[in-house]
Design goal:
Layout lengths: L3 E11 L4 E7 L12 E4 L11 E4 L2 E2 L3 E7 L3 H6 L7 E8 L9 E7 L3 H4 L2 H4 L4 E7 L8 H7 L2 E6 L6 E2 L2 H8 L8 E6 L2 H13 L4 E4 L15 E4 L2 E4 L6 E3 L4
Parallel strand pairs: 8-9, 8-12, 9-10, 10-11, 12-13
Antiparallel strand pairs: 1-2, 1-7, 2-6, 3-4, 3-7, 5-6, 13-16, 14-15
Length: 250
């Protein structure tokens, strides 16, 4: 089954000045993604930028898929100009997904990392707690939807404008004070600094975890070696051996 798909834009929904969702209609033969997998997208009719950009599968149905995108460069800005009926070629689903949990989960999302973990609750109907943070309240998106999907939602902001005043890692540290770490597994995604800090805390408490790493990916097929990361098991390609890694691999 080909993973190179010719799709049609159903629409764009602007959430904030920088964040928007891009909804595409999938062809009938498209393989459905699993939570944590990603696609490579490239604005049509443009060779600048030349390479495709990776985006987590955010939400999807039988014949559609949605991506949560933050405008921060030329490619993401161009994707935000697409209109209903436009055609766009995408490659996916790609990468290693989050495994189905065998026990209670604590999901950690920092900023746009919510895109990677949003689908965990509807896909794996386990007992989920969500800790979701951003720099400021204006960057927290789909909060009301998240409250219907996750049993317990803890919001936090770096500036204290909503919820817990501090990072998601600080919030998790508080959360752990009256919990038995052996009773749950952590799934997480966020910017590199957050992931590094989170990894340290999880290892300190010997907590089972799976983390999705954010990395620039050019081919998505492991050929270009552009997304190689140092791990506990040597150099690994995030697009192939990841983007989801077990805590023991990091």
């Amino acid at each position: 089954m080909s993973r190179l798909l010719d799709t049609e834009v159903e629409g764009i929904h602007n959430l904030t000045a920088r964040e928007f969702t891009l909804r595409l209609r999938l062809p009938a033969n498209a393989e459905p993604p699993q939570p944590g997998q990603f696609y490579l997208l490239k604005p049509p009719c443009s060779n600048d930028p030349l390479l495709r950009r990776p985006f987590s599968a955010f939400r999807w149905g039988n014949d559609w898929i949605e991506f949560l995108i933050r405008k921060k460069g030329k490619a993401t800005t161009l994707l935000g100009t697409l209109r209903s009926g436009d055609r766009i070629s995408i490659l996916g689903p790609l990468g290693r997904a989050f495994p189905e949990p065998g026990k209670t989960t604590v999901v950690i999302a920092g900023g746009i990392g919510i895109a990677s973990v949003y689908s965990l609750a509807p896909a794996y109907r386990a007992d989920h707690t969500l800790i979701y943070g951003a720099r400021t309240s204006g960057e927290l998106v789909f909060v009301e939807n998240l409250k219907t999907l996750f049993r317990d939602v803890h919001l936090c902001t770096d500036d204290g404008s909503r919820g817990f005043h501090g990072s998601v890692v600080d919030c998790l540290r508080e959360f752990l004070k009256d919990k038995d770490p052996a009773t749950f597994v952590v799934y997480g995604c966020g910017p590199e600094g957050m992931t590094a800090s989170l990894t340290g805390l999880l290892k300190e408490h010997n907590i089972e975890a799976y983390l999705s790493l954010e990395e620039r990916m050019a081919c998505g097929l492991g050929a270009c070696m552009g997304c190689v990361r140092q791990t506990a098991e040597g150099m690994r390609r995030v697009c192939m051996e990841g983007p989801v890694f077990h805590i023991g691999e990091l």
